[in-house]
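We modelled the chain as a single entity of 358 amino acids. Its sequence is:
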Amino acid sequence: MVVISECSAPTASRCFPVSLRKDAAGVLVRRLSLPRRSWSSKVPSFRTLAVRASTPLSAAVASEACAKVIDGKYVSKLIRDKISAEVSRMKEAIGVVPGLAVILVGDRKDSATYVRNKKKACESVGINSFEVQLPADSREEEVLKFISGFDDDPSVHGILVQLPLPSHVNEQSILNAVSIEKDVDGFHPLNVGRLAMRGREPLFVPCTPKGCIELLHRYGIGIKGKRAVVIGRSNIVGMPAALLLQREDATISIVHSRTQNPEEITREADIIIAAVGQANMVRGSWIKPGAVIIDVGINPVEDSKSSRGYKLVGDVCYEEACKVASAITPVPGGVGPMTIAMLLSNTLTSAKRAHNFQ
């Protein structure tokens, strides 16, 4: 039995009180009330949650006891509101509504929940959703048949095959079958290959890594020239996250299950993206003062105080990291909402590209 030590705070917003204001464009912006001098207000901002690229990350937290919250839930709402407006504009201008098709094979509860959330997200922004649920013992040919049908359907602009697939289904064959023009998950080998090559542009970038980078951009966190460590090397998150950071001119290290001295390597990082799927693996002692942490992990751990009997925590020990880092994503409410927002964004982009709509 694995014992996970208790180290996650219920919410990071306890660190500083939150207020709301409108910026020059009339957009409602959350601000953290801080005891000392005020900083310029970007959306969102650091100290209002933004650090200027010229400011050393460690200086931003030298006298602070708690990291700033990178609020993915809030940022994703801004993105979804913009997507909703664009979907409406496209429908009014040319009569086209973006469409996303999701194929689910099997009856995994977590996968079914993800699919249900994606469907709700589509409805919230006006994107049409098409869903196919196949039994776990479905043959590979059956899955390929539905992919082919959606590929040929002009009302479908994005195709997503929910992973993982049952063990008897060849994941590579399934992902290769999705048309690159509708590969809104960004997993087609041509999209991944273009992402890896300098001077090439993928049609789509995988949604979770794209959401991580978007959060760094939205919070004004500089990437160029910084040391970045990605913990985990999966095809879904770790590998494409490292490629995206490299495109932003960061110096990259990847920590994985065979890495020796992972703590030492991680402690050198200005930016940490943790995507390993192990609850509270990254401790406060792994983190350089002032580092920025993007925690992709979402892991259930026992919690007798919860009505569900468990709570969700990240790959980073939040309570410890909060005392060392300059900024951190909470779990839940950090990267998760951004993943779905990027999927909606990719679907809208696909529809615009298909109809040459600017």
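As a brief sanity check on the tokenised model: Residues 72-94 form the longest helix (23 residues). The chain is about 35% helix and 15% strand.
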